[in-house]
Task: structure prediction
Amino acid sequence: MLNIVLFGPPGAGKGTQSQKLIAKYKLVHLSTGDLLRAQIAEGTALGLQAKKLMDEGFLVPDEVVIGMIDSALEKNKQATGFIFDGFPRTVAQAESLDRLLAKHSTGVACMVALEVGEQELVKRLLERGKTSGRPDDQDEAKIRRRVQVYNTETAQVAGFYDVQQKFHSLNGIGEIETIFGQISDIIDQHPVAKAETPAAATKEVRA
Ligand code: B4P
Result:
């Protein structure tokens, strides 16, 4: 299996690049942000709990997102690989992901981090907020809180993968196609990507 973690601060381009990567590599897309927003749209108890935190720019509890990823992996046993988008966001989530993937006799192939400065992140997310309807994209103070949460709680996840020699970093500022080409070059270096052409149907997963 080919399992890729796409990493970076809010607005770095993870969701944007995920769409292109799932089309190219035929991997299953697992975005914890999308899974949580689906729960909110369905009005579940989990969604109600998550909405309060997400709207203010805080992370939802680890056990909630780990549980969602666990059931998504169970539902997609036929997949030839996954793009993890926005997960893991804490070291506890990263440790759980290793455990969950080991249950399926697989592991993370590589993490690709998109580096973008705070000013550009704020600009992009305020722009997206004009059309996305997402409360967390419409208020500069909340966007800056998300960046701060990334710096204090999430950035250290890079070290977790660096120790495993799976960490790769790219400049996330530039043409979307150029960045996509650079991510593809990193993935193509991986022995699993060289050895197999994933055949599973492209699809997005909702909880
Ligand atoms: P997410 O849904 O993961 O949202 P995000 O980080 O804001 O989006 P992303 O980074 O994918 O956006 P993109 O750059 O593609 O998380 C939302 C919230 O959910 C979190 O704050 C948290 O509360 C909760 N959550 C999710 N996962 C969690 C977890 N694991 N644990 C705990 N809580 C969790 O797009 C941004 C904009 O930039 C777009 O408009 C795009 O067009 C533009 N853009 C992209 N690339 C560009 C480029 N190269 N140049 C110019 N613009 C570009």
In short: The two ends are 22 Å apart (CA to CA).
